[in-house]
Amino acid sequence: MAEHNELGKEGEKLAIDFLLKNGYKILETNYRYLKAEVDIIAKKDNTLAVVEVKTRSTDYFGNPQDFVNPKKIKLLLSAIDYYVVDKDLDVDVRFDIIAIIYQKKETKIEHLEDAFLHF
C-alpha cells in the first residue's frame, strides 16, 4: 500500500478514537454512494456528523482541511442526502472535518464542526 494510503488509514483510526472519546457513536466508516466516499458517519444526540478526515505528515503545503475541495463537498452532500432518506432518519446533519497532522513526535487533531459553512 502506498505511504499516503497508510497515512490516511492511520488518520481515520485516530479520528474514530477521537470521536468515540467525545461521545459520538460511529454508524459507518468508508460509506460509499456512487462516486462519493464518506470517511465517517457518526451520531451524537440528534445530530448526524458527516466527517471528512484529512491527514498530512506536515503543514508545509497548508492545513489538512484546505484540501477539501468543492467537488468533494458536492459528492458528500449527495451521499448523505441518499443515506438519510434510505435509512429514514430524522436528524440534524452537520458536515465536519477532522484535520490531523500526524508526526512521530507529535500528532495534532483539530475537529472543525460545521466546516462547510466556511466554503
UniProtKB/TrEMBL annotation:
Q: Which Pfam family, an example, fits this chain? A: UPF0102
- Do you know which Gene3D superfamilies this protein is assigned to? 3.40.1350.10
Q: Where does the source fall among the domains of life?
A: Bacteria
Alphabetically, the GO molecular function entries are:
nucleic acid binding
User: What CDD domains is this protein classified in?
Assistant: PoNe_Nuclease
Q: Which PANTHER family match?
A: UPF0102 PROTEIN YRAN
Q: Which family does it belong to?
A: Belongs to the UPF0102 family.
Q: This chain belongs to which protein, by name?
A: UPF0102 protein BTO14_12370
Organism per entry: Polaribacter butkevichii
